[in-house]
Amino acid sequence: MRILVAGASGQLAKALLDTAGGRHDVTALGRPTLDLKDAASVARAVTATNPDAIINAGAYTAVDKAETEEPEATAVNVGSANLAREAARRDIPFLHVSTDYVFDGKLDRPYRESDPVGPVGAYGRSKLAAEEAVAAADPRALTLRTAWVYYHEGANFVRTMLRLAETRDELNVVADQIGCPTYAADLAEGLLKLAELRVADGQKQPGGVYHLTGSGETSWHNFATAIFAGAAKRGFKVPAKVNAIPTSGYPTPAVRPANSRLDCSLIEKTYGVRLPVWPDALERCLNAIALHKPG
Ligand SMILES: NC(=O)c1ccc[n+]([C@@H]2O[C@H](COP(=O)([O-])OP(=O)(O)OC[C@H]3O[C@@H](n4cnc5c(N)ncnc54)[C@H](OP(=O)(O)O)[C@@H]3O)[C@@H](O)[C@H]2O)c1
């Protein structure tokens, strides 16, 4: 299968390239060759690669910066519809990635696809606008909302914790935001399986919005504690103390949802796709990081 991945340098794009391996012919294209905002560049990239399926791993993802750059965040993310339009025109599957930030995080259970949306920040609003634009451009597109994505490369919570631990003996980590960490390798595997199923059945199964994160749930503080337990076993320097703090103790320009948990039962029921539990995924990520550890 030939797969075009939009967004070449991001952590999910890298994970898709790594995971697809020899299984598929994957081309990942980013700016300037493929700029989501530029319909002509998107059309040229799709024509040049002639794919059997398109996966959009590109997005404006700077959550805090989006608060002061909302028009740019919206233009890039709504630009995903340029890809969706090309996919619909060619009758090939389009898989788009969205976020838990479309919700306000106030619900006391994991969010289902049928729950009302209500983003509390500019990034969430831009991603919600993207979901709507994608659905309008290609009603058969699959939009996968995920959360708390990390990989053994790129900028993410796991690597930030390990970097901070190199110079600090004590860290404060927010304990009142809960969600499910999603290892990009597992998300990539899930997306590839969905693309394979969509190609095989000629997109007969319903498209639309689905939730897809790692399984289980935790807080950022508990996740950090697990990262350091695993890192210590692998010979990394870890802090002596990891303090649990409230969100109010770590102010950021953008408000984060307190509850980022997504109920992923619909995608499992419809497509048989379920991602592994987060502690197992974290072990695999730390193994990959340890492989490249200097010394
Ligand atoms: N990270 C998370 O915790 C998280 C959580 C929920 C959902 N998501 C969603 O998951 C997807 C993948 O996220 P990620 O963590 O892999 O993000 P990432 O590492 O920040 O990568 C984003 C990618 O998008 C590209 N991009 C930015 N503007 C573009 C444009 N105008 N045209 C084409 N490409 C553009 C960037 O390329 P440049 O190098 O050119 O900037 C980069 O390769 C996104 O849809 C994101 O919203 C992420």
Notes on the structure:
The protein is an alpha/beta fold and 295 residues long. It has one domain: 3-Layer(aba) Sandwich (Rossmann fold), CATH 3.40.50.720. Helices cover 41% and strands 16% of the residues. It has ten helices and twelve strands. It has helices spanning 11-20, 39-49, 70-78, 80-90, 122-137, 157-167, 184-200, 220-233, 265-271, 278-291, and strands at 2-6, 25-29, 53-56, 94-99, 142-146, 149-150, 170-174, 178-179, 182-183, 208-211, 218-219, 241-245. The strands form four sheets. Strands 2-1-3-4-5-10 form a six-stranded parallel beta sheet, sandwiched between helices. Strands 6-9 form a two-stranded parallel sheet. Strands 7-12 form a two-stranded parallel ribbon. The longest helix is centred in the middle third of the chain and has 17 residues, at 184-200. It is globular, with a radius of gyration of 19 Å. The termini are far apart. The model has no long low-confidence stretch (mean pLDDT 97). The protein binds NADP nicotinamide-adenine-dinucleotide phosphate. NADP nicotinamide-adenine-dinucleotide phosphate (NAP) is lined by residues 6-13, 30-31, 34-37, 57-61, 76, 97, 99, 127, 146-149, 154.
Unique bound compounds:
NADP nicotinamide-adenine-dinucleotide phosphate
Shape: globular
Q: What fraction of residues sit in β-strands?
A: 15-25%
For the record, the count of structural domains works out to 1
Broad CATH class: Alpha Beta
Helix count, DSSP H or I runs of 4 or more residues: 10
Query: What is the second-level CATH architecture?
Result: 3-Layer(aba) Sandwich
**CATH fold-level name:** Rossmann fold
The main sheet comes to:
6 strands, parallel
**How many strands?**
12
Can you tell me the residue ranges where pLDDT is under 50 for at least 5 consecutive residues? none
Strand order of the largest sheet: 2-1-3-4-5-10
Order of helices and strands: EHEHEHHEHEEHEEEHEEHEHH
Radius of gyration: 19 Å
Give helix % range.
40-55%
